[in-house]
Amino acid sequence: MKKDIEDKIEKLRESINYHDRRYYVENRPEISDQEYDRLMSQLKKLEDAHPELVTPLSPTQRVSGEILEGFESVEHRVPMLSMDNTYSSDEIREFDKRVRKNLQVDKVDYVVELKIDGVSISLLYENNKFIRGATRGDGFRGDDITGNLKTIRSLPLNINPKKDMKIPTLFEARGEVYMPRKEFSRINKRKEKNNEELFANPRNACSGSLKLLDSSMVMERHLDMWIYGVGYVNPAFFNTQFDALDFLREAGFRVNPYIKKCHSIEEVIEYCKEWEHKKDSLEYDIDGMVLKVDSFSYQKKLGQTSKSPRWMISYKFPAERKETVLEDIIVQVGRTGTITPVAILKPVELSGSVVSRATLHNQDEIMRKDIRVGDHVLIEKAGEIIPQVIEPIKSKRTGKEKKFRMPEKCPACDSLIKSIEEEVASRCENLSCPAQLKERIVYFASRNAMDIEGMGDAIIEQLVSKKMVEDYGDIYYLKHDELAGLERMADKSASNLISAIRKSKSNNLNRLVYALGIRHVGVRSAWILSSRFKSLDNIAQAEVGQLEAINEIGPIMARSIFNFFRTKENRKVIDKLKRAGVDTITRNPLPTTLTLEGKTFVITGSLDTFSREAAEELIRQRGGNASSSVSKTTDFLVLGKDPGSKLEKARKLGVKIIDEKEFREILK
Ligand SMILES: [Zn+2]
User: Fold this and answer.
1) CATH class of domain segment(s) 2-61
2) What CATH architecture applies to the domain 84-314?
3) Which one of 224, 498, 579, 657 counts the least CB within 10 Å of its CB?
4) 435 C-alpha to center of ligand 1: Å?
5) Is residue 115 flagged as an active site residue?
């Protein structure tokens, strides 16, 4: 009986795998979607009734259902080396010359492939089963992303060899995962609707998706892959790249149909040029071509440099340029107040998308290139989604073109724009500028600043959009009932938030100085300012020279501090803070020597004699940094009770670990 069920399940799986291949790999389905769904639901039903028969490679298990904490690092059996690039036909010819010279032959066959703009991966198969998938990583070690790769429907979970077909016991297929353009625009449209940050290009979207820890989310991204070769193979039954590709295709991998074997370098160049013109007709991005010496024994003879094989090279397409008319220049206010001029272009198609805007970076750049409104301009898109204006075509000028001048006032709030010479940037420094408000408040409430617990992104978003606050000073005037009326805000959490806000009023001055968000003033300079000047008023009145006289404050920061306190709108906000009772005077004497200067500490677990915040504050007061995660730059890990995963990481990285007693000694 049981044997019958097992057989039935096995048959269904085989059949689904077969139809997956027909549909996702070969693009010639044999059955209707309904018939396919019927097979799948039959299998699911049987597996539900016999959970002991579920295997990880069953087609029902493409999504694992568990959420990972991170990816494990794995070693590649054969390193995944990077490739050298060429940019012209001449460079390709030189490569061919080198190859023939090294091999001492007159003629070499090459395999030419499309260079897919995606993420390189390695897929390991043992006894016809997919056992592991990994990213390229640094070429020697990558991340184990098996679960995420399984969600890609064209990846064969099992290989069903045709009769007489020889399959290596253990082998590695290599390829590129990519996001089709259509999928990319679908996802970005959705992100735009949800007011989320957009992906810059399909490659970014693809690599971001493969890093997700929940494979059900990866499944929704509809990634796909092209397999372009083998890595480790044992035993090998093929002697050339072209034969290896044949094998992969036979075994059910998705191998790109445009791969071509060329018998001379001129044929290679011609094929590269052909695709340079045709690349936009594809449904995915390619950024060049790859040529490989076909014969494996030649490849072996040629060997590799420390970085890249001598038998393979890429030809990168030049970035596409187009001419169009620059109709206007507008300015945009970024989230931190930077004002960026943006070119409004007559819409033109460039690298597969319609372009109507391009960044102009800053006023200096516009002057340097002498770009004027009304100019014919050349634009270029080099890999990124935001196109650039390369140069004006001056010969096409009619004399009616207008020079650009940075407006004097911020388009979002009408306050005066400051140009900051040293950074060639223009900025709106108004704390209440609606274009910057949300980010400013997030910063103000953050852990290193006023540390207002419970004041998260979602709350701030609502406060700003409902116009309940116009600047961060207004936080201190919020009422319990107003907060309780917000979405996802219970009565209790409103009370907690109110008391967290109240508590923050008596923070040390250094926190407030940092929270103000004065450009260039970080945690440490905020501490120096508050310990030198003792009160916010004193800092506000300081002249540039006085500020600059302090060792650690340079001319750029001094000017930035000076400007900040001389902006009318900012003074208004500071008055608001004072009236609300926010402490603006240094009360606790601060240590004067910076005994921990330049040292970075991370605290894990709970300490007996300090709260974590207090401990971090003490570190900062002594000139050290307190960080929340362990990295190569961490000097000390302070070990409290019930430490987390930071301990293991610190051990791995060889970070010095100290206990609370040793920590107290260091503070003395
Ligand atoms: Zn503004």
Assistant:
1) mainly alpha
2) 2-Layer Sandwich (3.30)
3) 579
4) 6
5) yes
